[in-house]
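User: I'm putting together notes for a lab meeting next week and I want to include a structural view of one of the chains we've been expressing. I don't have a solved structure, so I'd like a prediction I can at least talk through. The sequence is below, exactly as it appears in our construct file.
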Amino acid sequence: MNLFEKYIHSKWTSLKKINGWKHYEVKNVYVEKKKCELFSVCDKNILVIVSIDEINNSKKWSSGWK
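Assistant: Thanks for the context. Below is the predicted structure for the 66-residue chain, given as structure tokens.
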């Protein structure tokens, strides 16, 4: 299993609203770029791409929906 596969479909809460929303789910993982594509669970048209390092930064993101 790839180290980054654990992120697929994982759920995250942004500590600051992004495009008006806080709750996101990982849609894709770009292993070579070490980035995740997330969508807002409240508006699936809103997509954001963040680095693996950023999503693991507890000052920006929290695992699960809070």
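A couple of points you could mention at the meeting. The radius of gyration is 11 Å. The chain has a mean pLDDT of 94.

User: Perfect, that's what I needed.
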